[in-house]
Amino acid sequence: MTPRRAGWAQVFGTHLRAEVRRLLTRRWDAAVAFALPLIVLLALAAMLGPGVARDIPVAVVDQDQSTFSRAAVREMVASPALDLAYQPATLDEAMGLMRQGKIYAVTHFPPGLTRGLLHDPRTVTVYFNGAFQTIGSMGAMQQSAAVGMAAAPLVEERARQMGLPATQLSPPAVQVSIIGNPQLSFELFLGALLGMGMLHLLAACSSLMAVGRLLFRRSFYLTGRSSGGQLSAALMARLLPHWVIFTLWGLAWIVWLAGYRGWEVAGSMPVLVLGLAGMVAVTVALSAVLVAALADLDLSLSVTAVYSGAAIAFSNATLPLDHGPKFAQVWSQILPFTHYVRLQTGQWVTGSPAQSALPDLGLLWGIALLALIGAWAAMKFRSRRPAQPHAVGFPLPRQSVWGAFAATFANLPKARPVSSLLLLAVVLYAFYYPAAYSGQVAKGLPVAIVSTSDSRLVRNLVSHLRASEGVDVATVAGSSLEAERLMKDGVVDGVVILPDHLGRSVVQGVPDGIAVWLNGGYLVRVASVGKAAAAAAAATLESQLEGTPELARVAELAPSIRQESLFNLTQGYGDYAVPAVVMVILQQTLLMGAGVIAALRRETLAPPLGFGGRLGLWLALITIGTLSSLFYFGFVFWIQDYPRAGDLWGVIALSPVFAAASSAIGLCFGTLFNRRERVVQVWVGSSALLFFLGGAAWPHFMMPKLLVALAYLFPSTAAVQGFVRMNAMGASLVEIAPQAIILCLLAAGWGAIWLAGFAQGKKVAP
Question: In the chain, which end has fewer C-beta atoms inside a 10 angstrom radius, N or C?
C-alpha cells in the first residue's frame, strides 16, 4: 500500500505544480483566474456604490397652477431621491422626454384639480416608465409621497371650512421594518447576489479548462498512462488551485461588502464561509464531470454557459418562481447556486440561525463529493480508449467576397462549435432564459399574522390580506418571536403584527398601529408584500368609515393619487427584464461565434484572409445576427407576448448595425486566441455584468461616468437603451439618435480594424 500512496502523492504534486505554473505564466488562464474576477468585482463596486437611488430625473405637468400643486412641486424639489429635471406644459411633451430616456416618471396635475375638491375630487396621476421598471417605480413612489405630503394641510384646511367637527378617528398607522436591509440598499442585495453569481460562472469556466488539459482527442488515455493510473490525483491537483483562488475571491468580496462597506453579516460568518467554499467546490466539481462525461471542451463550455450563466435568474432571488412554469421551479432546485443564495441570504442579511443553513450546506458539499467521484469514474472509463482523431476547420476563400459569404454558411453544419453558438444557442435561449420570468409578478407570497385579538377590525384586515393576490396568509402566529423565527427560517416572506385591541384603538384615536416586517434579502418580494399590506390596511379603514358619513366625507377631500405604469401595463418582471437581457444574449452569441471562427482559423493554421475574404465573412455574420435579432423581436416577443414593434421600421433598420458591431468585435478579439475554447471561456463570464452595465436594472445616472463610458464600448449598452425604447416605448430612431450613432461608430470602428487586417493574429502550432 505504501508505494501506491507515494505514487498518488507524487502524481498529485506533479499536476499541482503544473497547474499553478500554468495559471501564473499563461496569459488567458491567468486572465480568467485573476484579471476577470478583479475587473468584475471592481465594476460592481463602482456601479453599486451609491446603494440607494438618488436624484431620479422626473417631470411635472402642472395644469392646475394652484397652491396645492406648487406645494407638491416644492416637496419634490426638496426630496433627495428626486431630480425635478423638467416641467413641460403638456403630457405629450413629457412622454417625448420619457421616450428619450431623460425622465423616468411624470406627475400630472389636471386643470381644475383644486377647485373641484369640495364637490368632484380629481385624480393626480403619476406615470412611470415600466420598461425600466426598477428605477421608474422608485421615482413614482417618491413623487406620490411628495403629493401626499402636500395634500395633508389642504385637507385639514378644507375640513375646517366645511365646519366639520374634529374627529377622534385615527387610521391604523402601518410601520414597515425591513429585516436585514433597512435602507433597501441595492448594493447589499445586488452586490452579494451578482458578485457570487459571476464568480460562480468564472470558476466554472476556469476549472473546466483545467480538466480539459488532461483530455486529448476525446480521451484521457495519455493522462492515465503518464500518471500510472492515478487519475484521481491528477484530477484533484488540477482542481485544487481553482477552488482556492475563487474561494479567496469570494472572501475578498465578503470583506469588501461586510467590512469596508459596512453591510455586516447578521448570522454566522463561519457558516457563510463554509457555504461559499461549498459553492465553489461544487462548481469546480461539476466542471470536471462535464469534461469527463462529454469528453468535449466545446460542448462542456456550452453546457456551463447554460446552467451557470443563467443561475442568477433561476436562483429565486429576484422574481419568485413559485407560480412560474414547473420546469423553472424544478430547474431552480437542481442548480446548486440556488441553495447557496438561500444560505447566503439567511446568514448575511436575515440573520437566520446557523442550523437552518445545514440542509443547504450539506447539499452543496454532498453534491461536490458525488461529482468528484463521478468525474473520476468517467475519466477512468475514457482512459481505456486511445485518442481518437478529431479535426474541425473553417476554410474560406482568401479574396472572394461572395465566396467567403457562401462558404461561411456552408461551414456551419460541419463546424459544431460555431453553429452551436450562432444557431442552437440563439434558439435555446429564446425559451430557456424567459422561463425564469414567465410568472411575471410575485404572487401568493407567504406571510404570517401575529394577533391575539378577534375584533371585527382584525378579522377585516385578515380577510383583506387573504383576498390579496400578492400574499398568502400562511399562518397566524401567537407571538412576534414565533413569526420572526418563521421569517428567518425562510418559511414566510413577511410578518404582519396586529396589536391587541386594535379596533378600539382606531375608534379612540390611540396612536396604535400595524407593524409589518419584511425580509430585506429579497427586494422584489419586499415590494409585493409591502403593497399588499398597505392595500389591506387602506381597505380595512374604508370599511371602518362606513356608517360615519361626515368622517367619510373628510377622508374623501384629499385628491386621489393613481400610479400608472407605461409601456409595461401588467408591471410584469419578464416584460421588463427579458427585452433588455435579449440584447446581451444576441451580442454574446454573435460575438463568441465570430470569435470562435477567427480563433479556429488561427488554431488550424488557416492562411490569413485578404480584404475580400474578411468582408465576405463579416457580411455573413451580419446577416446571421440580423436574422437572429428579427427572430427575437418578431417571433419570440410575439409568441411570449413581450412589448414589441413600437417602432418596427426603426428596429429593422438598426438591427444590421447592431449585428455589424457585435460580430466585428468578435472577429477582432477572436484573433487573440490560439484555441477556440478560449473565446467562450473568457467572454461568457462577462454576460451578467454587461446586462447591468446596460442601465436597465441600475440606471446610468447612478454609475460613475467613466464606467458608463467604458460600458458604451460594448454594443449591448447602446442596444439595451435603444431597442428597448423602440420595441416597448415606441421611440423613433430620431428619439434614440445618441444610441444609434454609438452603434454606427462601433460598427465602423471595429469593422475598419477587421477589414484592414490589423487583427489577423500570428500563426501558432495547435
Answer: N
Per-residue pLDDT band at 537 (split at 50, 70, 90): low
Residue with cell 455584468: 689
By the 10 Å C-beta count (0-12 exposed, 13-18 middle, 19+ buried), 738 is classed as: middle
- For the entire predicted model, the pTM comes to 0.89
Judged by DSSP in three states, 438 sits in coil
Beta bridge partners of 132: none
Q: What pLDDT sits at residue 718? A: 97
Evaluate if residue 476 carries a pLDDT over 50: yes
Would you say 582 and 632 are in contact if contact means Cβ atoms under 8 Å apart? Answer: yes
- Of the candidates 590, 587, 623, the one whose C-alpha atom is nearest the C-alpha of residue 716 is 587
Contact between 236 and 207 under an 8 Å Cβ cutoff? The reply is no
CB 406 within 8 A of CB 617: no
Please state, in angstroms and rounded to a whole number, the distance separating the CA atoms of residues 405 and 408.
5
Over residues 160-204, the pLDDT tens digits come to 665 555 444 445 566 777 788 777 788 888 899 999 999 999 999
Cα→Cα distances 549→101, 155, 403, Å = 46, 16, 84
| 179 three-class SS | strand
Q: What is the pLDDT of residues 412-467, one digit of tens each?
A: 999 988 999 999 899 999 999 888 888 777 777 888 888 777 777 777 777 878 78
Gap between the Cα atoms of 352 and 329, Å rounded: 23
Q: What angle, rounded to 10 degrees, do the helices at 358-382 and 269-294 form?
A: 20
The CA radius of gyration of the chain, in Å to the nearest whole number, is 29
What angle (nearest 5°) sits at the alpha carbon of residue 730, between those of residues 728 and 731?
A: 110
Which residues lie below 8 Å from residue 583, measured CB to CB, with a gap of 6+? 658, 694, 716, 719, 720, 723, 724
Among 230, 222, 238, smallest CA distance to 4 is for 230
Question: Helix axis angle, 737-755 relative to 715-729, nearest 10°?
Answer: 140
* φ/ψ of residue 184, rounded to 5: 50, 45
Residue 513 has a CB neighbour count (10 Å cut-off) of: 19
From CA 69, how far away is CA 72, in angstroms rounded?
5
Output the CA–CA distances (angstroms, integers) from residue 508 to 466, 504, 513, in the order listed.
27, 6, 12
Report how far apart, in Å, the C-alpha atoms of 615 and of each of 403, 633, 750, 756 are.
10, 27, 13, 10
Q: Read off the C-alpha cell for 60.
A: 411635472
Distance, first Cα to last Cα, the chain: 40
Q: Exposure of 538 by Cβ count < 10 A (0-12 exposed, 13-18 middle, 19+ buried)?
A: middle
Report which of 494, 566, 562, 501 is spatially closest to residue 532, judged by C-alpha positions. Answer: 494
User: What are the beta bridge partners of residue 476?
Assistant: 449
pLDDT digits (tens, 9 = 90+) for 662-698: 999 999 999 999 889 999 999 988 888 999 999 988 8
Give the pLDDT score at 702. Answer: 92
Q: Are 7 and 230 in contact (CB under 8 A)?
A: yes
Distance CA 27, CA 33 (A): 10
Q: 445: helix, coil or strand?
A: strand
User: How far apart are alpha carbons 549 and 108 in whole angstroms?
Assistant: 30
**What is the per-residue burial (b if ≥16 Cβ within 10 Å, else e) of 628-659?**
bbbebbeebbeebebbbbbbeebbbebbbbbb
- DSSP H helices in 295-442: 297-309, 326-334, 336-344, 358-382, 401-411, 416-419, 425-432
